[in-house]
């Protein structure tokens, strides 16, 4: 059942309508739990319920259902349990020995009726001696556990994009959310935090040791780290900034000097920047980096040294489409777009949006009064600020 996380769901016509995020069951004491259905995430980030009676096929990488899907937001009942979110990593007892659950299996016991029949568990911390046993041989699922762990759930979510994992994390009970967040690596947690609502960001960061919280902030994009620090109490934000490495804190401090709803407050301080003597081949190598978002990788900014913000004199921008059309040995200084003027850090949100729309751009260079490039505002930065404050939590009816 852990492998169902992220599996595509198709309607009777063969159209993909969403992805599975969890499986809903009802615990019945010593009896096998009955599978009620699946939690399916449809766009935009809405979780709905797919009854198990509507499921007509479960295959590798696909679940097919029949009938119509009720688009009302899923609300878990007090008598229900989520398999992936709440049952994985549970400490249980098998033949008198304490073990940790890492998967469960369900079977169709009669037409359109499914039950959990088997449990996969291991002892120790490194999945030693894994065992698959019948549900009846396991006890402990009904016990209250103070520290459940998160290895199994993280493994189930491993292939998800950061935004999808953030959505899954947001839907977990508060205690479980904290357990999973604290078990993530710093870089993965940073990616997920960037996609969470501010309330979740603050809650998770507040449970971390200050030194680790500072490490996670260092892994975040400077503009996202600055937005998060802006939401914290001033003394807490100052303390975390002081714990960060000076070179990592410097761009964040600069961003904090600008109002949040201006180009300076929205921009990323780490766009792709190269000197005019660099070649098209070098530029393409830079924008191929997999950790760059598509909007950041869509253009290369050309400046005089130094080539880190704030840079030397800003010379212009070269779009990736132009880079693909020119020979690899061409110098960047000769492939600049002369029609794009930079914007100032003080541009307001409506002004930045109008600028991007007028020139059909996905990003805009931000240049200060000294002619230095200080960052770039991307279209996703603008959308982030134009959407309602709670948009990451999903629109409710």
TrEMBL record:
<dbReference type="InterPro" id="IPR038076">
    <property type="entry name" value="MgtE_N_sf"/>
</dbReference>
<dbReference type="InterPro" id="IPR046342">
    <property type="entry name" value="CBS_dom_sf"/>
</dbReference>
<dbReference type="InterPro" id="IPR006668">
    <property type="entry name" value="Mg_transptr_MgtE_intracell_dom"/>
</dbReference>
<feature type="domain" description="CBS">
    <location>
        <begin position="336"/>
        <end position="397"/>
    </location>
</feature>
<dbReference type="InterPro" id="IPR011033">
    <property type="entry name" value="PRC_barrel-like_sf"/>
</dbReference>
<dbReference type="GO" id="GO:0015095">
    <property type="term" value="F:magnesium ion transmembrane transporter activity"/>
</dbReference>
<keyword id="KW-0129">CBS domain</keyword>
<dbReference type="InterPro" id="IPR006669">
    <property type="entry name" value="MgtE_transporter"/>
</dbReference>
<dbReference type="Pfam" id="PF03448">
    <property type="entry name" value="MgtE_N"/>
</dbReference>
<dbReference type="GO" id="GO:0016020">
    <property type="term" value="C:membrane"/>
</dbReference>
<protein>
    <submittedName>
        <fullName>Magnesium transporter</fullName>
    </submittedName>
</protein>
<dbReference type="InterPro" id="IPR000644">
    <property type="entry name" value="CBS_dom"/>
</dbReference>
<dbReference type="Pfam" id="PF00571">
    <property type="entry name" value="CBS"/>
</dbReference>
<dbReference type="Pfam" id="PF26205">
    <property type="entry name" value="SH3_actinomycetes"/>
</dbReference>
<dbReference type="InterPro" id="IPR058838">
    <property type="entry name" value="SH3_actinomycetes"/>
</dbReference>
């Amino acid at each position: 059942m852990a492998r169902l996380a992220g599996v595509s769901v198709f309607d009777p016509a063969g159209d993909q309508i969403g992805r599975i995020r969890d499986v809903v069951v009802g615990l019945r004491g010593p009896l096998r739990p009955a599978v009620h259905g699946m939690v399916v995430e449809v766009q935009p980030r809405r979780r709905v319920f797919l009854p198990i009676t509507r499921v007509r096929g479960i295959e590798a990488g696909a679940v097919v259902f029949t009938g119509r899907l009720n688009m009302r937001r899923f609300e878990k009942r007090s008598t229900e349990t989520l398999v992936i979110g709440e049952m994985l990593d549970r400490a249980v007892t098998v033949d008198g020995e304490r073990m940790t659950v890492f998967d469960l299996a369900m079977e169709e016991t009669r037409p359109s009726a499914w039950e959990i029949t088997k449990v996969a568990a291991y002892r120790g911390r490194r999945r030693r001696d894994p065992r698959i046993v019948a549900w009846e041989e396991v006890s402990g699922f009904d016990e209250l556990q103070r520290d459940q762990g998160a290895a199994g759930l993280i493994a189930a979510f491993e292939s998800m994009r950061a935004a999808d994992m953030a959505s899954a994390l947001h839907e977990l009970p508060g205690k479980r959310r904290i357990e999973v967040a604290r078990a993530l690596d710093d870089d993965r947690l940073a990616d997920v935090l960037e996609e969470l609502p501010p309330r979740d960001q603050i809650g998770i960061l507040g449970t971390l040791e200050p030194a680790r919280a500072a490490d996670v902030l260092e892994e975040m994009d400077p503009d996202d780290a600055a937005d998060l620090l802006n939401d914290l109490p001033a003394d807490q934000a100052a303390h975390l900034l002081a714990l960060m490495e000076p070179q990592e804190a410097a761009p964040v401090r600069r961003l904090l000097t600008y109002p949040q709803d201006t180009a300076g407050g929205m921009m990323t301080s780490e766009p792709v920047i190269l000197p005019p003597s660099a070649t098209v081949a070098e530029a393409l190598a830079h924008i191929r980096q997999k950790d760059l978002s598509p909007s950041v990788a869509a253009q290369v900014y050309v400046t005089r040294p130094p080539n880190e913000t704030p840079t030397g004199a800003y010379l212009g921008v070269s779009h990736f489409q132009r880079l693909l059309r020119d020979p690899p040995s061409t110098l960047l200084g000769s492939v600049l777009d002369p029609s794009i003027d930079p914007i100032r850090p003080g541009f307001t949100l409506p002004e930045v949006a109008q600028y991007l729309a007028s020139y059909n751009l996905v990003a805009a260079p931000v240049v200060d009064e000294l002619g230095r490039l200080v960052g770039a505002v991307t279209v996703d930065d603008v959308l982030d600020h134009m959407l309602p404050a709670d948009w990451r939590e999903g629109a409710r009816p």
